[in-house]
Specification:
Structural class of chain A: mainly alpha
Structural class of chain B: mainly alpha
Shape of chain A: extended
Radius of gyration of chain A: 22 Å
Largest sheet of chain A: 3 strands, antiparallel
Number of domains of chain A: 2
Number of helices of chain B: 18
Strand content of chain A: 5-15%
Distance between the termini of chain B: 26 Å
Strand content of chain B: 5-15%
Radius of gyration of chain B: 24 Å
Order of helices and strands of chain A: HHEEHEEHHEEH
Number of helices of chain A: 6
Largest interface: A-B, 110 and 137 residues
Number of strands of chain A: 6
Helix content of chain B: 55-70%
Oligomer: heterodimer
Order of helices and strands of chain B: HHHHHHHEEHHHEHHHEEHHHHH
Chain lengths: 191, 602
């Protein structure tokens, strides 16, 4: 069969080019030019690593801003096994999860009667979403200010600093990086 | 819908359309063997490949030989992916020490990547070594896409040639697609992705200390791994404190770039492009979603150029865009409206400057509703199947559109190459129906369309429908099929229907709740993917051979022009009618019932 040799040889050669040379070139250039970004945008503190600017972390202490609910298993924000909840819109388990999350937020901040921004009580797609909406941050400002006994204006200024607008003023959505905001609250710099 | 979201979708459509001519023209030159600015760099590589293959780049073959070459090449690819997965435990570049993949899962994945589907029954960061990702999966991302492009080019030659026996050389068409089109575009995109934060390295996964440790309840097990029960007979749990977080690593950017450009869609990580290390910013999102439709859209122009009438290419492009845009806005609208069941729960779902609102379950804040909806629509219009949000959690109507876009046969842009050759089959059927209406022998691009072509085109149209509906019916009727369902009621049926729509049209996206990594689904979906890929390529190539052998017929006053709004409408009508008639009953049982239940009328 005269088709066999070209099929085999072209497959092997293209394997070397697309599976070997191509990723190695991207790695070489990426490591040389964008080494921080190519290695996970990690945040160091002294000689230890305390997070990635792109990966959210779980927060439940009321002195911190909370991120999105995370559906990863067994623990939330498990970076080794990204996952969404995959709950359908009419699944009763979803409605009851949202009810519980709203109740938990209300219990920590009884005076706050505002409706809870939806992103704060729905699980993200990745389970690792580093962001919440500015509305979800604003909802939590009074609580964090009260627990930390700091003026709300001061907390709002930190939220402002952790907020990114739309790219080029149009792409994506405005968002607040929860980990960077909480590090700033603790007086740490994300280096 | 809000203004900023509408603007983002409109900008996307404008940028895409602006790129059609430059890239499409470039690809036409490549396939016609003309010199381009890349020839000085890649020409020697290309000629070296032909020399080692022992082939003459100018020696062409008949459609049967061409089909044999396609099947053989892809079968070798399938075997390679299968074997590498089984053996990854003893192969290098495996810092996490993953064992070989289980055989049925490996079969499913091998078919999936060789057929340009990239359905994934596994989680990337917890299953595949870097060796497997690069040398098995990434290679198929290139060559399966290139195979689709090659078959398209052969079909176009069938239209363009007169009384010819040959339709091209598969190895040449496939190699050129890879070297001159996929590789340069991937290189550029991958580097932009790295600059934004998509990881690209060979390190072991990093461990970081959590700012606030988290306590979870884990089941207690005895020495042999069985759960210990408490006094009430429930599984006993103990508190466990988690103080660290794993940050996954790997050569992701190089793979993400080609999985978008080659309409493959197989994610490096489990949640695909919803993962912040796969799609970290709105800019990467824009480029990744653009990459999904870029080549399928540009190939329309390549087609027009090669049949020497670019109006024909624009007509097909227009038909695709006219189906795509309203459906995209349909998803956007359904998702932005949010979930009426949550209205009494004390949440705010209304879009404002401070948040996107809407149905945010399974979506990422940086993308919001508009970019999630645009992606869902683009990835299922094209046979890409990557996701940046979880389709399983979409509202019923928001989830119906992606499902239906797949069921249309992946011809609205569709796969690289396969989308357009599928659409040209619909065009053949459209001119046939038009011919019946006026009682004339149908013609398309100067070729008489006769019984043989119509029969072959009908096979291409009907095979995926049969695969999807029969597969769904079987899975819904047996415990091995229904046992994998995650959500109760009509939504559970939608999960099964979505899975077979995806595999039976080589898309690869999923309603992620379905536990598809089971023996039944691994084999059933694997077979579906195989049939829908290769049993369609053969009749397409048969048409190419038959058309190439025909003489051209003269254009007369009685010829139906195929570049006019009338024909575009006709083509859209045929696509939508076949898609609607075939799938409305099954859609009524899934998403439509669920929608009525959700709005409280069920």
């Amino acid at each position: 069969m005269s088709e066999l040799r070209p099929a085999l040889v072209s497959f092997l050669l293209l394997t070397v080019i697309t599976g070997g040379v191509y990723p190695l070139v991207v790695t070489g250039v990426g490591q040389a030019v964008f080494s921080d970004a190519a290695n996970g945008s990690l945040i160091g503190e002294g000689d230890r690593l305390i997070g990635s600017r792109l990966i959210g972390q779980p927060f439940s202490d009321p002195k911190y801003f909370f991120g999105r609910p995370s559906a990863t298993a067994p623990q939330p924000y498990n970076g080794a096994a990204s996952s969404g909840s995959n709950q359908g819109p009419t699944n009763p388990a979803l409605a009851s999860a949202i009810t519980d999350r709203v109740a938990a937020l209300r219990a920590l901040d009884p005076e706050n009667k505002a409706p809870v921004p939806i992103d704060l009580v729905t699980a993200s797609g990745s389970g690792l979403d580093p962001h919440i909406s500015p509305a979800a941050a604003e909802y939590q400002v009074p609580r964090v200010a009260r627990v930390r006994e700091r003026p709300e204006a001061e907390i709002r200024a930190l939220v402002e600093e952790a907020t990114e607008g739309r790219t080029l003023g149009i792409l994506g959505e405005p968002r607040v990086n929860v980990l960077l905001l909480n590090l700033a609250l603790d007086g740490k710099k994300a280096g | 819908m809000n203004i900023s979201g509408v603007m983002q979708i409109v900008i996307f459509a404008i940028v895409l359309t602006a790129l059609v001519k430059p890239l499409g023209g470039f690809m036409a030159r490549i396939y016609q063997g003309e010199r381009t600015w890349l020839t000085p760099v890649l020409g020697p590589v290309e000629r070296g490949i032909y020399r080692l293959c022992g082939i003459d780049a100018n020696a062409e073959s008949t459609w049967k030989r061409y089909a044999l070459a396609v099947l053989l090449f892809n079968f070798i690819g399938f075997l390679a992916v299968y074997v590498i997965q089984l053996a990854q435990g003893v192969l290098p570049l495996n810092p996490q020490g993953f064992a070989g993949v289980e055989a049925k899962s490996a079969f499913n994945t091998a078919v999936s990547f060789a057929s340009n589907t990239n359905w994934q029954g596994y989680g990337g960061e917890s299953t595949m070594s870097y060796f497997t990702q690069m040398l098995a999966l990434n290679v198929q991302n290139f060559v399966s896409a290139a195979s689709g492009m090659a078959v398209l080019v052969a079909l176009i030659r069938g239209f363009a040639r007169r009384q010819a026996q040959q339709i091209g050389n598969f190895t040449v068409d496939m190699t050129r697609s890879t070297l001159y089109v996929l590789l340069p575009l991937s290189l550029i995109l991958a580097l932009v992705l790295v600059s934004q934060g998509v990881v690209q390295n060979f390190s072991a996964y990093q461990t970081v200390d959590l700012v606030e440790p988290v306590t979870i309840q884990t089941p207690v097990q005895d020495a042999s791994g069985r759960p210990i029960l408490d006094a009430a007979g429930n599984a006993a749990t103990q508190a466990q404190q988690i103080t660290q977080q794993t940050i996954p690593m790997g050569p992701a950017a190089s793979q993400v770039a080609i999985k978008q450009l080659g309409t493959n869609g197989g994610g490096f990580f489990n949640v695909n492009s919803a993962h912040p290390l796969e799609n970290p910013t709105p800019l990467t999102n824009f480029l990744e979603v653009l990459a999904i439709l870029l080549i399928p859209a540009a190939l329309c122009y390549t087609f027009g150029r090669m049949v020497k009438d670019t109006r024909q290419g624009w007509a097909v492009y227009a038909a695709m865009m006219i189906i795509f845009l309203p459906l995209t806005f349909g998803v956007f609208n359904a998702e932005q409206a949010g979930n009426p069941r949550f209205e009494t729960l004390g949440v705010d779902q209304v879009s404002s400057v401070a948040h996107s609102g809407g149905n945010m379950e399974g979506k990422e804040v940086r993308f919001g509703i508009a970019n999630s909806a645009l992606w869902a629509s683009a990835t299922t219009a094209a046979s890409n199947g990557s996701v940046n949000s979880m389709h399983d959690s979409y509202t019923p109507l928001g989830g119906l559109v992606p499902m239906w876009l797949m069921q249309l046969g992946e011809v609205v842009f569709g796969g690289t190459g396969s989308g357009l050759y599928g659409m040209l089959m619909f065009a053949i059927v459209a001119v046939f129906i038009a011919g019946l209406m006026v009682g004339r022998t149908p013609e398309y691009l100067g070729k008489k369309i006769e019984a043989y072509e119509v029969k072959m085109a009908s096979i291409v149209l009907l095979v995926p429908c049969v695969v999807v509906l029969v597969g769904t019916a079987i899975a819904s009727a047996i415990p091995a099929g229904t046992g994998s369902v995650a959500n109760p009621g009509a939504h559970g049926f939608s999960e099964i229907l979505y899975a077979f729509s995806s595999a039976g049209n080589n898309n690869g996206s999923a309603f992620g709740g379905l536990s598809a990594n089971t023996p039944f689904y691994n084999i059933a979906l694997g077979v579906a993917m195989w049939i829908s890929r290769f049993w369609l390529m053969i009749p397409v190539l048969a048409i190419a051979g038959s058309l190439a052998a025909k003489r051209n017929v003269a254009i007369t006053a009685g010829t139906l022009p195929t570049h006019t709004p009338l024909f575009i409408a006709m083509l859209i009508g045929v696509v939508l009618m076949i898609g609607a008639l075939t799938f409305l009953p099954s859609l009524a049982l899934g998403p439509i019932v669920e929608h009525l239940q959700m709005i409280g009328k069920g």
